[in-house]
Specification:
It is a single chain. This protein is an alpha+beta fold and 147 residues long. The chain has one domain (1-147): Peptide methionine sulfoxide reductase (Metal Binding Protein, Guanine Nucleotide Exchange Factor, Chain A), CATH 2.170.150. 14% of the residues lie in helices and 27% in strands. The chain has helices spanning 7-17, 33-41; strands at residues 59-63, 69-72, 76-77, 85-86, 95-100, 107-112, 118-123, 133-136, 141-145. The strands form 2 sheets. The protein has a 6-stranded antiparallel beta sheet. The chain has a 3-stranded antiparallel beta sheet with strand order 2-1-9, with no helix packed on it. The N and C termini lie far apart (36 Å).
């Protein structure tokens, strides 16, 4: 049960819980309310709270909505930002990038290349060889171990 602290939180959580999930092409009925907020409403999980932030297993990171392979654990690194970070996508078609002008800044939004789910943002302060940091919400991911 969610404890409502202020009226703005009540409106926010009610909008998530009452959201009609039938307006997306992919089958997203399996998503939790938090996953829906991140992937469909471009929300962001709190830093340092994601399930995959400290994951060191070898494997692939998949879109929680459609199962598209997004990132490989080989490219994951600890950026210290509080979100799982990768220096490259799995393939050139894994993700798409769109300009994001929300929250009073301009950023590059990372979307699933198959279903368009919001994953996070990409920045140009990452390590070699790409110099990129794909800063991704754990709530937008599933993990498939190589084992």
């Amino acid at each position: 049960m969610i404890k409502i602290v202020n009226p703005f939180e009540k409106v926010f959580w009610e909008s998530i819980m009452n959201k009609d999930r039938s307006d997306n092409h992919s089958d997203i009925g399996h998503l939790t309310d938090e996953q829906f907020n991140v992937t469909q409403e471009k929300g962001t999980e709190a830093p340092f709270t994601g399930n995959y932030l400290h994951n060191k297993e070898s494997g692939a990171y998949l879109c929680v909505c459609c199962g598209n392979r997004l990132f490989n654990s080989v490219t994951k690194f600890d950026s210290g930002t509080g979100w799982p970070s990768f220096y490259d996508m799995d393939t050139d078609e894994s993700v798409t990038i769109e300009s994001d002008h929300s929250q009073g800044m301009v950023r590059d939004e990372v979307l699933c290349g198959d279903c368009g789910a919001h994953l996070g943002h990409v920045f140009s302060d990452g390590p070699a060889p790409t110099g990129l940091r794909y800063c991704i919400n754990s709530l937008s991911l599933n993990f498939e171990s190589d084992d």
